UniProtKB/TrEMBL annotation:
UniProt cross-references to SUPFAM superfamilies, sorted A to Z: Pentapeptide repeat-like
PANTHER family, sorted: THYLAKOID LUMENAL 17.4 KDA PROTEIN, CHLOROPLASTIC
Gene3D superfamilies: E3 ubiquitin-protein ligase SopA
InterPro entries, A to Z: 5peptide_repeat
Protein's name according to its UniProt entry: Pentapeptide repeat-containing protein
Gene source species: Kineosphaera limosa NBRC 100340
Stored Pfam families: Pentapeptide, Pentapeptide_4
């Protein structure tokens, strides 16, 4: 006769400590990294080139003077990650949790072969203030309350993303696309918008600040 076991569920298998993996290493090429960093842990002076971060837990960790070149982050928790004096050259973030991450102190290089991409990421309360991300892509991302003040987003795309409460002020949106994005509202007079593409429905709200109504 079968019964329901009253034994507790097994504890999840702990992830490897990335501090141990990265000890005494300053250059990693095309490696796959799986593990976690304790809250407040600091990684300093490491260059990652073509590396894949797979399901890593890096929330509230710190990377100082690090460089990420064409790296992929998949299924990672990067919430409140601190990036100090570090550089991001290209790269892809997919299915990542990135709550309140601050890109403002991160140098993003314009020489990347492919522009940076965010796909199906949670970026609520993230800060891209003052960051140059030309031709970047945010596809199907949660960007609620995200700050794009003073950012350079020329030719960027936000297809399928939720922009409710996002801040655009003195933002360069020339030739960018908000097609299929939703929830955005900002003063077109306070931003550079020549060539910006919007949907007829969502985009109509941008005219409200001008006192115009589309019926």
């Amino acid at each position: 006769m079968c019964g329901v076991s009253d034994r507790p569920d097994p504890e999840p298998t702990p992830l490897p400590n990335l501090l141990t993996l990265l000890a005494d290493r300053d250059y990693l090429v095309e490696e796959t990294l799986e593990g976690e960093l304790p809250e407040g842990a600091t990684v300093t002076g490491v260059e990652f080139e073509g590396c894949t971060f797979e399901a890593c837990r890096l929330a509230q960790a710190r990377f100082v003077r690090c460089t990420f070149t064409d790296c992929r982050f998949s299924g990672c928790d990067l919430s409140m990650l601190t990036l100090t004096d570090s550089r991001l050259i290209g790269g892809v973030f997919e299915h990542c949790k990135m709550l309140a991450i601050n890109f403002a102190s991160l140098g993003v290089s314009p020489v990347a072969v492919e522009p940076i991409r965010f796909e199906e990421c949670r970026l609520q309360f993230a800060a891209f203030a003052g960051v140059a991300l030309p031709a970047a892509t945010w596809r199907d991302c949660d960007l609620r309350e995200t700050d794009f003040t003073n950012a350079v987003l020329t030719a960027a795309s936000f297809a399928g993303s939720d922009l409710r409460g996002a801040t655009f002020s003195n933002t360069d949106l020339r030739d960018a696309s908000l097609i299929d994005a939703n929830g955005y509202a900002f003063d077109v007079r306070d931003n550079r918008v020549r060539g910006l593409r919007v949907d007829a429905g969502e985009g109509a709200r941008l005219l409200e600040v001008l006192g115009l109504t589309i019926e």
